[in-house]
# Entry
Amino acid sequence: MGTTTPPRTLAEALRARGDESLAGLLRARPDLLNPVPNDITQLATRAGTRASVVRALEHLDRFALQTAEALAVAPDPAPYDTLLSLLTGDGLDDGEQRDDLGAAVTAALPGALATLREQALVWGEDERLRLVRTARELLAPSPQHPSPTGLGPTVAEATAGMSPGRLQEILVASGLPATHDPVSAVAALSALFTDRTRMAELLDTAPVEALSVLDRLVWGPPYGEVTPNPTPPVKWLRDRGLLLPVSTRTVVLPREAALHLRAGRAHRVPEPVPPVVAAAAERDPQAVDRAAAGQAFTALSTVEELLKLWNGGGPAILRAGGLSVRELKRTATALDVSEPIAAFWVELAYAAGLLATDGMSDERYAPTPAYDEWLDLSSQDRWTHLANAWLPATRVPGLVGGQDAKGRALSALGPELDRSAAPEVRRRVLALFAELPPGTAPDPETLLRRLRWERPLRGSSPSGEGTDLRSRLALWTLNEAELLGITGRGALASQARALLDEGEDAAAALLAPLLPEPLDHVLLQADLTAVAPGPLERPLAETLSVLADVESKGGATVYRFTPGSVRRALDAGQAAADLHALLAAHSRTPVPQPLSYLIDDVARRHGHLRIGAASAYVRCDDEAVLNEILADRRSTGLRLRRLAPTVLASQADPGSLLEALREMGYAPAAESAEGDVLITRAGARRTPPRTPPTPVPEGPPTPDDTLLGAAVRAIRAGDTAATVIRKEPAEGGPSSTTASGSLPRTTSAETLATVQAAAMTGSAVWIGYVNAEGAASQRVIAPVRVEGGFVTAYDHTADEVRTFALHRITGVAELAEDGEG
# Structure
């Protein structure tokens, strides 16, 4: 460890580390960097705080955690061999399988210890391994928090406060010589329980029922309740100290006795090797890529359809935020998917910055300007944009429909869907996919088992959603990856591998050949339908979506022409001639006569009636048509009356009047105050420019190498200032206060003389300094120039040249030479 004397504290152990090792600690535990510790002692103190230790334990894999748990129940300090014995057992009950497990533990233990040492959870040499006190308190057994190992307290801990007379009774019942010294009594009883031969002889005399009681307690929890008049088997165990009282009704199996019954093992089954992710199926990699590309195209179409649905302004926002259940159902119906899948697409569009709130008084969801930019991208680039938004997103659509810790419903786009663990789980799941050969679909159960092994303490959630949020996140990741086209037929696609390893350009290049080219034609049929055999070019698709209704989707899209859809196109400003020309130009089959007749018939009647604002009026040059409307019983609710032979007035608003007459079979057109026909195109509503939602970080970000290097230098320099040996002032010389932790105190003249002397000799001095904000600090500086009331010096604490005002220096002390002190 770089020193000849074993470290006595964690701070000494950290001080003996190299810079690279300290950087590794700060990289593994970035919470220690906020703010940068002043010195090694402060770093060690911060590394031992409860919050930091809990966070570090949560990032251990199962075997490293089992190693820490074994150290928590081992003597402090513990030799390496003792720790190994707790993980492998004493070897007296080993079979062939146990021998193989012991060999695996022996091989894996150095790596687990290295991890614990790197994260400053364990320190000391192999002969004296110490678990950080806070970690021992978290993992050690207590009645309120049983040890993860299932072991109880030691004999010494369980008998603390027990009367000497009771200890003597236990010794006599156990066949041990009585002693009036409680310490000797506890030592004798502990020695009995740790002696394999004598312990076996004692248990040979135990009733069968007593052994059954021990079997129930041996692997934990070690506590049991007893009645004031216990049964003979329990009384036999209690008399011999195999069950020790914790309270009047509670007894505990002492740790030494439990370890004997366990053959020395702290854990029932150590897990030194991570579970293997098994293959559920092996598929043709090219078939996987094609299936994933097909689903990627479906994802693009679905997101585009969703935002087109909300193009003129989407649903209103709930008062508490988010999308109402009714609106989510309506969206799911429009997209022809289930509500959970609809929630995923809505959240994905939101995470990608394509959807946001418009900020108006009647706040609604609407596409953002970024949506129009996204539409102009190629299909492969649009897909990489969605995938790159999904990977780091902390919002979890799978929670929609559930409840939070207070019993409130969680809604899509609501404020309570962020889970900081989601990106890490998502990327880890895909990394496990990537470790398998191309085309291999993993078995979900073994994948979940591997995730639980890697982060055994990260399963629970403080939000009250369940005890294994990490597994739920993994299962949602599997479903979402398939929907998005990251995976195909359960296996990772090549374009997704490229996205994870090489970036979006490589992924787009692999995906482009697999996506269908947009078509510029349809197939018109005599039953008033048109078949698009593939994706259409955007101008044709947009025009056709107005002229016809989508009847079915799939590999081919079927459009149906109806009087209402043709009228919709005419309302949007198209003329009958324009529609005939469009169909003739883009149909690979002749335009059917029924379709031509439908367009001409609707166009002939379109605008024959004119609607305006009176409240509303109807005018028509053909009086017979108006007479027909007045005679129709269905017009009674419109409260029509004739103002002139060609004009009817209504108390209904123009929009309601339009819809009512259309339902009666007419084709009215709205007109302006000047009498011009109003063209009713669907207006595109956009939000102001919005940024995508920022993922909620799980903790401090992992620092980069530059920050780590600067932090290590600052900590080293601060430690030098805090631990440097100061020269005691000579008798009769300048006086200075150099007590540890206090600032030196000298007069202004003494300070100036000492600093000038150091500048001339090139030596370093220790100063106390108070900055302009009044913050006091200790520094080790090497003065270079003293003039004008300022000292220019190399500041070892900050590792840079700085200028100090002489009047802010509280005092100065020379540093001791090597060997002085």
The first helix runs from residue 10 to 15.
